[in-house]
Write a structure and sequence with these properties.
Layout (H helix, E strand, L loop, with lengths): L15 H9 L16 E4 L2 E7 L8 E7 L5 E7 L4 E4 L2 E4 L3 E8 L7 E10 L5 E10 L7 E4 L2 E7 L8 E7 L5 E7 L4 E4 L2 E4 L3 E8 L7 E11 L8 E10 L4 E4 L14 E5 L13 E5 L2 E2 L2 E6 L4 E6 L9 E6 L15 E6 L7 E7 L6 E5 L6 E5 L9 E7 L2 E6 L6 E4 L8 E4 L8 E5 L5 E5 L6 E5 L9 E5 L8 E8 L1
Parallel strand pairs: 2-9, 11-18
Antiparallel strand pairs: 1-3, 3-7, 4-6, 4-8, 5-7, 8-9, 10-12, 12-16, 13-15, 13-17, 14-16, 17-18, 19-20, 20-24, 21-22, 21-25, 23-24, 25-26, 27-38, 28-29, 30-31, 32-33, 34-35, 36-37
């Protein structure tokens, strides 16, 4: 599509020069002319800093980058305004590529002091400059950066507290004043302060590792310490390693879930996978609860074996009572992290303990009359509890499979209770491997049990008759829901 431009003007209103300029912009066919975009000079950096020692080697050259970010070809030229500073090359062309200008300074013949200069680059719409600063150092007043240590190590547990901060020392082992700065390349590692000045004293930088949100693993970071000119031995680095370990766990307990026949005088051990903070291993973090609620006790911790021990103040309740050992996440390792999760162990106690004697009574005669034996016939009868006769203190000898021999303090291990044929009372007979002397117990209520022997099995149970025979003597009677068959255990004396 062709565009035509109609231009109207008055010669009287234009100067001759303006008229000629306007005519020059129009083609012969009254069409506008096209003007190309010019080249654009872009450069970096805008400043350079050099330092060298008086009478010593000159500093290393650096470069300035020149680029044409416009159209066409950029012809550029660079020049220095100081005799101690040269540029190479001094000119060039760019159609979009980056050209490098090497800037070299020479300290030869220069006295100690500060020098300034500029590199001027032409080729764009206006000249541009890079400012140059040169510090020639007095060899007797040069600061030198020193840092310690060269490596730092932190350890923590996942989900736990961050490790204690450490100190990084920075000092000036040279002369004059050292201005320094410090930086970390990782967000989890922070420094304070991040800059300072040393005239010979030691400055301390607090280095802190934050483990919040970090998974278990090994992490690395670098601290960079930089001395500002005219410092030497700069920059320096310190390598930092952070190890985040898995949370501590309970690796074993002396009682397992579902255990039965656990001794009523047992201590309960808990072993951890890692060293624990002893102040967190206590009766708040390791507990035992049972039929009566929380069990009073004490907790100790052995750091060598990483084992905590809960010791009840008193024996537990026997008769297969249910207890639960609990280790909470309040238990923390030495890194300040809680254990991975709460641990529980639920178990049943032993039916009766070999370590104690028991008083036995039934619902028919009541708890005041306890099972005893005559001293002459060894037959069983019920005696008044308050008499405290030796025959009324019974103990049980496990025989496996829930079977027990029943003996009392009167005859000790010489005789044991035998269930007779039901005609005569039960009695203490000489110890033997007889089925009538092997007793087992059927739970009838929360605290009451039926006494049976292997010889009679389910047919008969220990009872008291109310049929004209002495009701205070114990017999084997037909099993049934009789109050004389509801027996109770009262723990008495330690053996």
């Amino acid at each position: 599509m062709q565009f035509r431009t109609r231009v109207r003007w008055s010669i009287k209103s234009l100067s001759l020069l303006a008229f000629l300029a306007l005519v020059a912009t129009c083609g012969g066919d009254d069409s506008p002319t096209t003007t190309e975009d010019p080249p654009v000079l872009t450069y970096s950096p805008t400043s350079l800093t050099f330092s060298g020692q008086e009478g010593g080697a000159s500093p290393a050259p650096v470069t300035i980058t020149v680029m044409n970010t416009g159209a066409g070809t950029l012809s550029w030229a660079a020049s220095s305004d100081q005799s101690w500073m040269t540029v190479s090359p001094a000119s060039g062309e760019s159609t979009g590529e980056a050209d490098a200008i090497t800037v070299t300074v020479s300290t030869t013949g220069l006295s100690a002091g500060a020098y300034a200069g500029a590199i001027t680059i032409t080729g764009g719409s206006a000249p541009v400059s890079t400012v140059v600063a040169l510090a020639v150092l007095d060899p007797d007043l040069i600061p030198e950066l020193t840092r310690s240590p060269a490596q730092m190590t932190f350890s923590a547990a996942q989900g736990g507290s961050s490790p204690a901060s450490q100190s990084l020392s920075i000092s000036n082992s040279g002369d004059g004043a050292l201005s320094w700065s410090a930086s970390s390349d990782q967000t989890w590692l922070t420094l304070s302060p991040t800059s300072g000045t040393s005239a010979g004293e030691t400055d301390a930088v607090t280095v802190s590792a934050n483990v919040s949100g970090l998974n278990a693993g090994s992490y690395g970071a670098t601290i960079t310490l930089t001395g500002q000119p005219p410092a030497i031995s700069t920059p320096q680095t310190t390598a930092v390693t952070l190890t985040v370990v898995e949370p501590a766990t309970v690796v074993s307990t002396s009682v397992a879930n579902g255990d039965s026949l656990v001794s009523i005088v047992a201590d309960f051990d808990v072993t951890f996978s890692r060293d624990m903070n002893p102040s967190t291993i206590n009766t708040s973090t390791i507990t035992l609860s049972g039929p009566g609620g929380p069990v009073p006790g004490t907790v100790g911790y052995d750091g060598g074996s990483r084992t905590a021990t809960f010791t009840p103040n008193d024996p537990l309740i026997e008769l297969r009572s249910e207890y639960t050992l609990t280790v909470t996440t309040g238990a923390e390792d030495t890194l300040g992290a809680p254990i991975a999760g709460t641990v529980t162990r639920t178990f049943l106690t032993e039916f009766v303990s070999e370590l104690f004697t028991y008083r036995l009574w039934n619902d028919f005669l009541g708890e005041q009359l306890v099972l005893d034996t005559f001293s002459d016939t060894f037959e069983c009868y019920h005696a008044d509890r308050s008499a405290n006769t030796s025959g009324s203190f019974w103990y049980f000898v496990p025989q496996g499979n829930g079977r027990f021999f029943m003996r009392n303090a009167f005859q000790g291990d010489a005789r044991q209770l035998e269930g007779t044929d039901g005609v005569g009372p039960c009695r203490l007979d000489p110890v033997g491997n007889f089925t009538g002397q092997r007793w087992y117990f059927e739970q009838l209520s929360e605290t009451a049990y039926r006494f049976r022997t292997v010889s009679f099995g389910e047919a008969k149970a220990l009872d008291n008759f109310n049929d004209g025979r002495d009701p205070e003597q114990a017999y084997m009677a037909d099993a049934g829901a009789f109050s004389g068959q509801f027996w109770h255990f009262d723990r008495a004396l330690a053996r």
